[in-house]
Amino acid sequence: MKQFFLATAFAALPFAALASDAAETYVLDPSHSQVVFTYNHLGYSTTYGMFSGFDGEIAWDKVTPANSTVTVSFPVRSMLTGWEARFEHFMTADFFEADADEMVTFTSTSIDVTGETTAIITGDLTLNGVTKSVALNATLNQSGDHPMEGKAWAGFDATATLVRSDFDLGMFAPYVSDEVQVMISVEAMKAD
Fold this sequence. Notes:
By secondary structure, the chain is mostly beta strands.
C-alpha cells in the first residue's frame, strides 16, 4: 500500500527530467497538498487514506515544461487512515513495517507534455525499500499571483494506479485489491 501513497504525493506536477536555466523553483504548500489513495476492501467497500503536509520542490520551466523536474518526500508514518487500528496495522510487517525515519520519495525522470495544461510525469517512486518507475497523469489547474500571498503560485492535480505487490506490499491480495488508485492535489509557491 506504500507505493500508492508516494506516487500520489509527487505525481501532481507537470515537469520533466532535466531542469534548464529557465526553470524557476517552486516549493509545495504543505497546507494545501494532499495525496489520497483508495482501494477495494474484500468487495464490500472502498477504503480511503491520505498523506498531507509534505514537502517537495518543482523546478518549473514554463516555456519548455518538459525541461522541468519535481522531487517529493514524506514519512510513511504521516499516513492518515481515519482509524487508528488500521494505521497501526499498516505499520506492521504485514505492510510497511515502517519506523519513524522511513520515507517515501519521488523524483521525476521525464515529463511528456500532452496538452496545454496536461502532462505525463514519469519518475522513480521509492516505497518500502523498492524503487519503481511510476507515471502520473498531471494537470495544471491554475498559475498566477496568489490573491492573499502576493507571489507567484501554481496548482496541480495528478492521478496514478499503483500495484501494491510491486513494492512488496501485497498482503491479502487479491481479496484486498492489489491495485491502489492515487489522487494528488498540490499547490506550490515560487521560492523566495
